[in-house]
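Quick review question:
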């Protein structure tokens, strides 16, 4: 037999069993009792459905403080975040210039204030100066405490 004929035979078996229903080994296994849901029967279907017995909750016998602990068990509570850095005066001034220049121009346009040439120039220069200052001060180098071997640095 050639390898091609073995492959053809396997394909024929796959095609022949395509419409057959697969046997599920887990179909006969019931789910755990804790996943049973109680069915509330309405007045019209009292006879049609039987309520499922729910397991008794063990927490009912415990005091309230331990119930809250049981509810919180397994939930991650993150620590409080560190305070935001205040930054130095130059960085704060750069942020004010970055947003203040366009904000003034927008406000002056909405309020129809007269805008002389030097005011517009100052607002645009403040925006550009703030942007350039922040980009130059970004510090895209490695941190000073990283040591001599940074690993893979891109």
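Suggested answer, residue by residue:
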């Amino acid at each position: 037999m050639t390898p091609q004929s073995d492959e053809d035979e396997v394909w024929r078996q796959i095609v022949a069993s395509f419409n057959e229903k697969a046997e599920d080994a887990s179909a006969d296994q019931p789910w755990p009792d804790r996943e049973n849901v109680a069915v509330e029967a309405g007045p019209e279907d009292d006879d049609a459905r039987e309520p499922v017995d729910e397991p008794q909750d063990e927490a009912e016998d415990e005091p309230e403080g331990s119930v809250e602990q049981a509810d919180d068990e397994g939930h991650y509570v993150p620590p409080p975040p560190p305070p935001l850095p205040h930054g130095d005066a130059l960085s704060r001034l750069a942020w004010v210039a970055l947003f203040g220049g366009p904000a003034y121009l927008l406000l002056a346009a909405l309020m129809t204030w007269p805008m002389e040439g030097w005011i517009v120039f100052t607002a645009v220069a403040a925006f550009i100066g703030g942007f350039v200052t922040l980009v130059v001060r970004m510090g895209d180098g490695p941190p000073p405490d990283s040591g001599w071997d940074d690993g893979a640095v891109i």
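Why it works: The first helix runs from residue 3 to 16. The mean pLDDT is 78.
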